Structures are given as structure tokens and as C-alpha cells.
Request: fold
Amino acid sequence: MLSVHQLEAGYGESVILRDVSLTVEPGQVVCLMGRNGVGKTTLIKSIMGLLRARKGSVFFKGKDVTKRAPGERAKSGIGYVPQGREIFSQLSVYENLRIGLEANPDSTKRRSKVIPPEAIEKFPILPTFYKRRGGDLSGGQQQQLAFARALISDPELLVLDEPTEGIQPSIVDDIQDVIRSIHDEGKTAILLVEQSLDFVRSVGDRFYIMEKGSIVWQGGREDLDDPAVMKHLTI
Amino acid sequence: MEVWVSQVFNGLSVSSILLLIALGLAITFGLMRVINMAHGEFIMIGAYGAYMTQQIFKSYLPKSLFDAYFPVAIVISFVIAFAIGYLLEVTLIRFLYGRPLDSLLATWGVGLMLQQLARSIFGAPNVAVASPSWLDGGLTLFSGTVLPYKRLFIIALVASCLFAMYLYIYRSNAGRRMRAVMQNRDMAACLGISTRRVDAFTFAIGSGIAGIAGCALTLIGPIGPSIGTYYIVDAFMVVVLGGVGKLVGTVAGALGIGVFNTLFEWWTDASLGKVLVFLCIVAFLQWKPMGMFAVRTRSLD
Reply:
């Protein structure tokens, strides 16, 4: 569904990613791991189109999207929860969700003033915040909003960049439950950047480990006991 | 009592003109953060739009229809300024986002070019636009206190522009997209919004509103190619004093400057009044550098 071929990308003069290849199959949860600063977020940003690829290509649903703007990629079915949540702080919670609907392929949903109830059933607390500004929510609430904002477009691929970073433990549990339930429903593939090995072990189908801008290890769930995994992940 | 009423009315009238010329800038500078030195020239474009409409009505339409030219001129001024604003965004401004110094110089250059273009087309001397006859005269409150219809009309025009902008920015789908893009461009793009289109339209709308301001200025006096340069400083002052990025701040900024300007001029004289107003603004911005209505959120604290 998503395949990245020999991607090279970076900021300004510096090259961050070298020769990165990765695939996500429909319904799979693919976990991207690695220490801080190895290029995980840079890879995610290149997949979303926020960073231009210097070399290589990104295919989504069989189409080459390497040169496409982020908006087009989102509309073709990629939902994105960025690191640091990136809620529109001056917009109300309701407005944040309406913006999320922009990428929904169903035009009646896009125009509707009502937030589709099935889109936010995983976050029952959100409707009580509708009138509040996004910036006034706590970090955990913002993360739930960011999740709902991505899910509301009915994406076929959900890209999650450290969704549990800096969040209180009870909401971390909620978010992990949401990721599990999306996986169990099997309709949406997930590309997950995550530090917690215990959690990815319980939910992931395929694993990639990055170091210095390249993929250094990949495998399935049964391969995770490989000593190389610990070598690449321990500090 | 009568003096107070007429002074307050004068203050409101000055405020309404300040607000009108600042509204477009509240979008191009306030929301988009483009230091748009060509804003005054969009006012000039609007003014000449009104002049052209008047000439067309004079030459081609029966005299009985002449008074109807002004509402038509408002629309035409908006459309011309909108179109030129759109063109400018697509060809120049879009390469300069996030580069305030470059955009300052580039838009200043564009302003000079537009002034020269106006000089070539319409000639250097000022031209007069005849106001429609239904705006002559005034409303007599009590003897000696007359509120000119032209001033009342400008106040009403500003109020309607403001209301329309409020509906567009805060109540429409396009306005919501616009606010999302201005707050967090990358994230808005990742949620499926075409930021290019939103940028071009937002800049064009700001320019269009400057065009309406130019059209209204033809009611006050003659217009010339450099009319915009008289107003550009005031426009920036209003937006900065009010707080960049907030529509309500622009309204407050215009009201504050307009009313205090009138009062100080009444108590002292014209030039000293202006000096006092500037001193107050400088002092205020020392105290609150973000202006009257700063954008504040938890994430910025």
C-alpha cells in the first residue's frame, strides 16, 4: 500500500536520510524504531510530503506520489498525527475536527456541519470540549484531538509519530487501546513511530529500526528477540 | 454638549476611515504576516477603479443613471484590486513567505511600479470623482450640528465590510481553512488543504478590501497616483497597535487612534495633536509590545 524506495532527503545542505526503503501492507501495523535523532521524523515528513525527496520515490496505493503536495497525499487517504500534536490552537476543537474532515473522500461528510459520530466514538470525551479552543486543552486531550482529527478523514493509512510521547500514563493506555482496536478492525494500516518496545511488540506486524538515517534492521514479530534489536535500541 | 456630540462624531468618522484602510492590511499583514508596502497602492487602484466607473457612466449611460455609479464602483474597485492582488501573490508574494525583509523591499518596489503605471495611464495630476447626489448634504441633529451623509455612509460601509469579513473568516468553511493555514501551514497541508489556493485567495481578498477603501476615499477628496502613500503608515499603525492577527484588535486600534486624534486636536492643535497621538502609541507599545489584543494561548505561555 505504501512503499518507499531508496529515499534520500534532508534539510538544506545536510542529508539526513540515505537509501531508505520501507513498505506497509493494507491493514498492517508497521513500527519504526530507533534512538533519538536517527531520522524517524524526517522519514515521516518525507512520506507526508513536507520534505522533498532528493532521490528515490514514495508510492501510495500503486501511484507515485513523490512529487505530490502534502494536501494531495492526505486526500488520497493518508491520515497524519505529527510529533507534538500540532493542534490549531486558535481554532475550537470542533473547527479542528472540521479541518480534519477536509481530506475525507465522502463529500457529504465534508460539507456536513455535524461531526460524524462514528469518527469520534473512540474519543467519547471530545464532544464536551467542542467550544473550547484547541490550545486550551491539556497535552493528553490535544493528543486525542489530533488522533480524532486524523481518523475523521477515514484514512487507509494512518501515520503516527510518537503518539504517546509526553502524555500521562492513563491517556497513553487509552491511545494504545485505540491503536489496537484500529489494528483489530483491519481497515486501516498504521505506520507507527514508537519508543516503547513492549507496546510495539504487542501490536506490530512488521518492524524497522533506523540508525544514522538508514534502516539497519527489519523483521517480523517473531524476530524481535534477535540480539541485534537490543543493540540498536539501547542507549 | 453639541460640541461633544460633534467631536465624538468626528472621532468616529476618522476612526472609520482608518479602519477601512487598515482592514485589508489586517489580512495581508495581520494574518499572512506579509509586510505589504504595496497596500497603499491597492487603495489607489480602488480609487482609480471608482474614477473609471464614473467616467464610463458619464460617457455611455444616460444621466439619470449617474447616481447609481457608486454602488457599482464599490464592486468594480473590489474586483480589480482582488484580481491584481491575486496576480501579485501568484507571481511574487508566494516566493517570499517567511522572509519579511525581502517581502518589504519587493512589495515597496511593486508599489512604486503601480504608482508609475497609474501616472502613465491617468496622468500625474489628481483627478476628482463627483460624489453621487444622494450623498450630498447631511443629517441635522440640532442647529449647528450636521452629520454629513458621506461620513455616515463611510461608517456604514466600514461596518458592512467588517461584518462581511467576520462572516467570511469566522463562520465560513473557506475562512476556517484560511485560519488553519495561517496558524500552522504544514499541518493544514497534511490534512488535505491546498495551502497555495488559500494563500492566493487570502491575499487577493485583503487587496480587494483595500480596493473598497480606495473607492470610499474618493468621497473625501481628489485622488492621485500617490494617494496610497498618505495612508500606508496609518494602516500599519492601526494593525500593530491593535495586535497583529486579530480582527477585533484592528477595530480597537482604529477607534483608539481616531478618537484620541480628534480629542487631542480639539484640545491643542492639528500638529500637536498628531504628536501626542504618536507619543501615546509609542508609550503603549512599550507597555504592551504585542498590541491591544495579543494572540495568547497555553502553548505560547
